[in-house]
Design a protein that fits this description.
Elements lengths: L1 E5 L3 H12 L3 E5 L15 E2 L11 H17 L4 E11 L6 H14 L9 E3 L1 H7 L8 E12 L1 H14 L3 E3 L15 E4 L5 H5 L10 E11 L6 E5 L6 E7 L2 E5 L3 E3 L9 H12 L11 E12 L12 E6 L2 E6 L5 H16 L2
Parallel strand pairs: 1-2, 1-8, 2-7, 4-10, 8-16
Antiparallel strand pairs: 3-6, 4-6, 5-6, 9-12, 9-13, 9-14, 10-11, 11-12, 15-16
Helix pairs in contact: 1-5, 1-8
């Protein structure tokens, strides 16, 4: 069949790839260049989502933990396992028992993925591992594994895979109406933050609503000795301090906005990330240390008043010959693309 996929982010690219592998004629439409918006503005992690366990997303975490291995095996030059350290401070943030329990569940859900189990290290050991980490109230740290990637390069790799099988890529081609695609047997609306543009052209209330949540990051011109997962002081949120291309990456924020286009990081977000970093480091950073900043809009399913508690799962809605794709997560994009392909094909062969 002849199928149009609208949206050249990683979800659209993986859906096009899955359909092309099944032998269909696929055209991928992208209003700019493929992998040029949300998909290249992530925290550069392929992870299960340790904190998603708190909101009961066990199924998603399990899928994501297993999916890490897929990317590492398929594109080892772009992805690699990453050891993260989660320091625990007395009277601040989640207690040791809670984090330890979460990591035991994480390890259980990751069985068979080939990643080492979490371990606990003492304060003295952590001082050697990360000398500039604040030790005031430090009880020790957990070490656990996820994976890191270059999201822009990995996204381009997916585009190359589907293109090599015959997918037609139409860059700088914005699909404004479904009528433009009437020659196609089926349409997959995988436009990410812009999914509602085409959905609004079909009757009835949308089956799902999207939260536009901006995530901002800082890149610091200095090397990072180790990867840290830290709790924002006086909040439940966590943030990361990661080595990335010989720089230090700090992120992310979660700011709800009322439109799909990504705004640049605000002054408040920059100050927020610097303050969170400085709370844990003996050598504070200032704005002069920032090499660059970037942000991206995550199209989250609207499932909670606080975007930090929103579900990271995805959802589909079938109307006529159109499949609308809501939400998603980088790590599980390949799984989501395969399921989206199954759904549109089942829809078209009823």
């Amino acid at each position: 069949m002849k199928i149009a996929v609208v949206g050249g982010g990683v979800i659209g690219a993986c859906t096009a790839w899955a359909l092309q592998k099944r032998g269909h004629e696929v055209t991928l439409f992208e209003k700019d260049e493929p992998i040029s918006h949300t998909s290249r503005s992530s925290s550069k992690l392929l992870h299960g989502g340790l904190r998603y366990l708190e909101t009961g997303q066990f199924s998603l975490v399990k899928k994501a933990l297993q999916a890490r291995r897929y990317w590492i095996e398929k594109a080892p030059e772009i992805c690699h396992p990453l050891k993260l350290w989660f320091p625990i401070y007395k009277g601040q943030g989640r207690p040791k028992w809670q984090v330890g329990l979460g990591l035991r569940i994480y390890d259980f859900l990751a069985r068979g993925s080939g990643f080492p189990k979490a371990q606990w290290v003492s304060v003295d050991e952590m001082k050697k591992i990360y000398p500039s980490l604040s030790t005031q109230g430090l009880q020790g740290a957990y070490a656990f594994y996820d994976a890191q990637m270059d999201d822009a390069q990995l996204g381009k790799w997916v585009i190359e895979q589907t293109q090599s099988l015959g997918t037609i890529i139409k860059s700088h081609h914005e699909v404004k109406t479904l009528e433009e695609l009437k020659e196609f047997d089926g349409i997959v609306n995988a436009a990410g933050p812009w999914v509602m543009t085409l959905r609004s052209q079909q009757p009835g209330a949308a089956g799902h609503q999207i939260d536009w949540v901006r995530g901002s990051h800082l890149l610091i011109n200095q090397t990072c000795p180790q990867s840290l997962m830290l709790q924002v002081p006086n909040e439940k949120r966590i943030f990361f301090v990661l080595p990335y291309h010989d720089q230090t990456l700090i992120g992310t924020t979660e700011v709800r906005q009322d439109h799909p286009e990504s705004d640049p990081p605000s002054d408040q977000e920059i100050d927020y990330l610097l303050k969170a970093y400085n709370a844990y480091h003996s050598k504070p950073l200032t704005r002069q240390d920032i090499a660059s900043t970037f942000s991206g809009v995550r199209p989250l399913l609207k499932t909670a008043d606080n975007p930090s508690n929103a579900k990271r799962e995805w959802a589909f809605e079938s109307i006529g010959n159109v499949l609308h794709v809501y939400g998603g997560k980088w790590t599980t994009a390949q799984i989501q693309g395969e399921i989206a392909a199954d759904k549109i094909l089942a829809q078209l062969t009823k």
